[in-house]
TrEMBL record:
Keywords: Glycosyltransferase, Hydrolase, Transferase
Active site: E499
Parts of the chain that traverse the membrane: none
The family this protein is said to belong to: Belongs to the glycosyl hydrolase 65 family.
Glycoside hydrolase family 65 C-terminal domain: residues covered: 708-765
Name of protein: Glycoside hydrolase family 65 protein
Every Glycoside hydrolase family 65 central catalytic domain range: 335-698
């Protein structure tokens, strides 16, 4: 593996529960804006300064984002073909409510004026707040101390709040604080790199109504094409020697200025409460809702909001935390990653989690199959309700998946999009997008694993079964029993997870996962028929499903063609992959990675080279279907031709390396995930965090080092202790139970913290867990 910066000094010093910036540097500002983002799964505020940014172009992206709130964009193709998506969806940069400007007499405070005498910014992971403290000397010599605390509420998704404290140090005089809502915002342009931003030009939000008074103001806006509504309200609470108040209203902004008679040593406070409320159909009472929310927040007060935040975070960390002794950088990285996953994930069953979360505009805020394969296991373990909500999102977009199947010429079934927000396919490059049919199987796999870990048959029968059945139909539409391959069931012209190999016949990963999908759909039908016959009959009537079709699924699963090379003793990535010349990665200049930005796709497609784990991903997901020796042979072959140009890749290679005894490699790949964003290994943290990679670091510990699996309903572990660590511990949930796993130099212990006794396997040996320590 070509390491990408893993050996560099850490950018942020190691703290167990904090990310600390000790010095302001414009060159790294955009990266830090990403790292210091706050969010709650609905609302995300990039770590921009309240006073605005006055530095060099290209070193800041002002951003406020709402999960699931998007503008539609007409897609223009130089050459179009049947079934291409006609409209894209772009997560919008919305009204900036962070604005607080400070004036000492007539001198405006900002980071590029005067002199910073002290500076620190801290992201408090334990309590879910962002602090900035500084001492500033103005050009005229006035000195002021600022303490600024920001939170985005987990207990009320619509709310954010800022506590802004000003203490003049060496002067008496006029101090003015200006608080505003700025609707003059637009999205970042993608340029030549599709991973960075969007092709949405200009403002997408129009102002429909405005309110402003001495306490605050509000804006009601609507998108130009999608027709969505947004109401944003602010309410300001001030404490200090207030002299006068002035309001401002322009076509795109409302603001309030508070003037104080400042005295040296006497602190002035501004508490700013923000509410964002959206609607897709109508704006009835939306503005009033937002104004009521900020009024209620003011009544509760900033201290109450902060205490609520602390309580929520304490409950989260009690289950989600992985404690590591022996490597403070890893400890910090794991907590940073878990925190940002919580901040990014939709929790309402209507929204999902974007590839960049709510930290930036990369990939236009789209959701991918990353959710089901990489991110869902984390939430199913740490908060099963969130896991259920993520899968419920797929149910709510099932009709659009059905429509998409018809759009590409299929006669029935459902095809989930490769990238989307609202449920429609937004990928304009079908060879590496729409052709990734495996997303249907990925969703089916995720449903199976969720039910396995939670025992939630209600979800399976009420929502999951319909998804499973409609998506299973895809395979019968695009696959066939091939007499030239001993009448095996073949699936041609598809793209697997490896986007450097497109439009191939019988991608091994796809066929293996399709087989698993079909088997689970058949099993679910049998369960429903036996346990919920009326519900099953209603579902069959709704979608026109009969026993003959289910028998065909069973036959396809039993006769699925899986490409295998007898000479090499490995699974071929597809029918022709092993016939291609091997790309010489050692001879490829470092500056030519990632390959997709420097080589034409056809050149890449003609070679044996992988962007990310493909067959190796199947080795992990379907672990019990391969012997250790099979895993080792396949791993050895595919590792040497994989670039890991996708941040999704190293975690999977780490997990499988752990399983086959390559512990040094497992740790190397793990370190490529755990601080990828904190230490900016790819040089693109400024464009947004890598959510799937963050979840991958959790997977690499729990499924890799600890070897957790579920086999035939039994929870299994095969733990080992990385030589760099003294101990690690974490909690897992299984069928309503909570089990603590502790691995150290003395061995492994298991503690049943909640639930009924159960039997687990440790390195294939049975252990019976009761409420007493094992």
């Amino acid at each position: 593996m070509k390491k990408k910066g893993n050996n560099q000094q850490p950018i942020y010093p190691p703290h167990d529960w904090e990310i600390v910036e000790e010095k302001f540097c414009p060159a790294y500002n955009q990266r830090n804006e990403t790292v210091f983002t706050l969010g709650n799964g609905y609302l995300g505020l990039r770590g921009n300064f309240e006073e605005g940014y006055h530095g060099p172009d290209g070193t800041s992206v002002e951003g406020t984002y709402i999960n699931g709130f998007y503008e539609t964009v007409d897609i223009k193709y130089p050459e179009i073909a049947y079934g291409y998506p006609e409209k894209g969806q772009t997560m919008l940069n919305v009204t900036n409510g962070k604005v607080i400007k400070l004036y000492l007499e007539d001198e405006e405070f900002h980071m590029f004026s005067g002199q910073l005498l002290a500076y620190q910014r801290r992201l408090d992971l334990r309590n879910g707040v962002l602090h900035r403290s500084l001492v500033w000397r103005s050009p005229a010599g006035r000195e002021v101390k600022l303490e600024i605390t920001r939170l985005v509420s987990f207990t009320n998704k619509h709310l954010a709040a800022i506590a802004y404290e000003v203490t003049p140090l060496n002067f008496d005089g006029k101090i003015r604080l200006y608080s505003a809502l700025d609707g003059d915002v637009q999205n970042q342009q993608a340029g030549t790199d599709p991973r960075v931003g969007s092709h949405l030009a200009g403002r997408a939000l129009e102002v429909l109504a405005q309110n402003v008074n001495d306490k605050g103001g509000a804006l009601l806006q609507q998108t130009k094409k999608s027709g969505f509504y947004l109401a944003c309200a602010m309410r300001n609470q001030v404490e200090g020697p207030l002299a006068q108040v002035k309001t401002e209203k322009t076509p795109l902004r409302v603001g309030v200025a508070y003037e104080f008679a400042g005295e040296a040593g006497r602190t002035i406070w501004l508490y700013k409460y923000l509410a964002y409320v959206t609607a897709k159909d109508e704006a009835h009472d939306l503005l009033q809702q937002a104004e009521n929310l900020v009024r209620q927040a003011e009544e509760a007060g900033f201290t109450r909001l902060r205490l609520d935040q602390q309580e929520y975070m304490a409950a989260f960390w009690a289950q989600a935390d992985i404690e590591v002794k022996g490597d403070p950088l890893v400890q910090q990285g794991l907590r940073f990653n878990a925190f940002h996953l919580l901040q990014a994930v939709g929790k309402d069953g209507i929204t999902n989690i974007g590839a960049k979360g709510l930290t930036g505009e990369g990939y236009e805020g789209h959701y991918f199959w990353d959710t089901e394969i990489y991110i869902l296991p984390f939430f199913t373990n740490c908060n099963p309700a969130i896991g259920r909500a993520l899968l419920t999102y797929r149910y709510h977009t099932l009709d659009r998946a059905r429509r998409r199947a018809l759009e590409i010429g299929l006669t029935r079934g459902a095809l989930y999009p490769w990238r989307t927000i609202g449920g429609d396919e937004c990928s304009t490059f079908f060879p590496a997008g729409t052709a990734q049919y495996h997303i249907n199987a990925d969703i089916a796999y995720a449903i199976k694993k969720y039910v396995e870990l939670t025992g939630d048959r209600d979800f399976l029968f009420t929502y999951g079964a319909e998804i499973l059945f409609e998506t299973a139909r895809l395979w019968m539409e695009i696959g066939a029993f091939n007499p030239r391959k001993e009448n095996r069931f073949c699936i041609n012209v598809v793209t697997g997870p490896d986007e450097y190999t497109a439009l191939v016949d019988n991608n091994c990963y796809t066929n293996l996962m399709a087989r698993e999908h079909l088997k689970y759909a058949v099993q679910t039908a049998k369960w429903m028929e036996a346990e919920a016959p009326a519900q099953y009959q209603n579902l069959c009537a709704k979608i026109g499903l009969d026993a003959e079709e289910i028998m065909l699924w069973q036959k396809a699963a039993e006769h699925m063609y899986i490409p295998y090379d007898q000479r090499l003793g490995i699974y071929a990535q597809d029918d022709t992959f092993l016939d291609k010349p091997v790309w010489d990665l050692e001879a490829t200049p470092p500056e030519k990675f990632p390959l997709l930005l420097h080589y034409h796709p056809l050149l890449i497609y003609r070679a044996q080279v992988c962007k990310q784990a493909d067959v190796v991903l199947a080795l992990f997901l379907l672990s019990t279907q391969f012997t250790t020796e099979e895993k080792r042979r396949n791993y050895d072959y595919y590792e040497r031709i994989t670039t890991h140009d996708s941040s999704l890749s190293p975690a999977i290679f780490s997990i499988v390396a752990s399983e086959i005894g390559y512990h040094d490699k497992a740790y190397d790949y793990f370190t490529a995930t755990v601080r990828l964003d904190l230490d900016d290994y790819h040089g693109n943290t400024k464009d947004g965090l890598h959510m799937a990679c963050m979840a991958g670091s959790w997977l690499a510990v729990v499924y890799g080092f600890a070897g957790m699996r579920v086999a035939d309903g039994v929870l299994c572990f095969a733990p080992y202790l990385p030589e760099q660590w003294e101990e690690y511990r974490f909690n897992v949930t299984h069928q309503g139970r909570i089990i603590r796993v502790v691995v150290n130099k003395e061995g492994t212990s298991y503690h049943l913290l909640k639930g009924d006794p159960l039997v687990i396997l440790d390195h294939q040996e049975k252990r019976v867990l009761t409420t007493k320590c094992e």
